[in-house]
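ok, trying the design again with the full structure, not the truncated one.
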């Protein structure tokens, strides 16, 4: 398996990042094939989630017993592969992306993994796809990893459709450390800061930001009674 040029976690050195991956469930042959094919694209391959994040997402999907998942931003399909593998029997994953070019890379790997029949890929603006969903709380897991200025819009469409014990995962929330760099004021950094502040202040949810990959926020509806979880 070809390694990415740098660890996805900007705060980890290559040696400790390799150790971390080696001491979790490693990518299997199908996943490694997709990692290799994506790495061959060059610098843009950094858009792919890290192997340890993929393992975490498969595990979380399985633990939650996810029957319906939504992914906003699929790229070459590694995160979709990881989520699909953790779905409950009969579970479905709806992927939203605008690029047939990138998503086409992942499709043979989904087939090889035996999960292609669980994945419904929608090539269209994600906000339109989300708005077309029934306004009922049926999403058990959502993963947001797309254009940063629209993070808040995706979140607002998904949250009312999230099941009571569902979870939203939001990627790149540390943005290689730029979120705390006062000199960084590009559109993406400003959007991520604003989104992070929005979630932190949102009384509708409980959230935790974890230092996995480039920063991953887990969000779930706030309990409505004293029982909580």
């Amino acid at each position: 398996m070809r390694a990415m040029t740098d660890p996805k976690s900007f705060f980890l050195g290559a040696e400790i990042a390799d150790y971390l991956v080696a001491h979790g469930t490693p990518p299997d042959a199908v996943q490694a094939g997709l990692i290799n094919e994506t790495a061959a694209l060059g610098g843009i391959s950094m858009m792919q989630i890290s192997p340890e994040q993929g393992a975490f997402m498969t595990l979380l999907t399985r633990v939650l017993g996810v029957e319906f998942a939504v992914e906003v931003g699929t790229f070459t399909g590694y995160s979709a592969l990881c989520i699909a593998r953790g779905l409950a029997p009969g579970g479905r994953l709806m992927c939203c992306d605008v690029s047939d070019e990138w998503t086409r890379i992942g499709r043979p790997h989904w087939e090889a993994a035996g999960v292609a029949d669980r994945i419904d890929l929608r090539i269209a603006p994600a906000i339109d796809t989300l708005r077309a969903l029934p306004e009922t709380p049926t999403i058990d897991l959502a993963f947001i990893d797309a254009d940063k200025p629209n993070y808040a819009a995706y979140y607002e469409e998904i949250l009312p459709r999230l099941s009571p014990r569902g979870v939203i995962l939001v990627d790149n929330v540390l943005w290689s450390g730029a979120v705390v760099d006062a000199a960084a004021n590009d559109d993406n950094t400003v959007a991520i800061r604003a989104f992070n502040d929005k979630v932190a202040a949102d009384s509708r949810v409980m959230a935790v930001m974890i230092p996995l990959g480039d920063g991953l926020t887990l969000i779930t509806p706030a309990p409505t009674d004293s029982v909580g979880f």
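Keeping the full-length input from now on. The chain has a mean pLDDT of 93.
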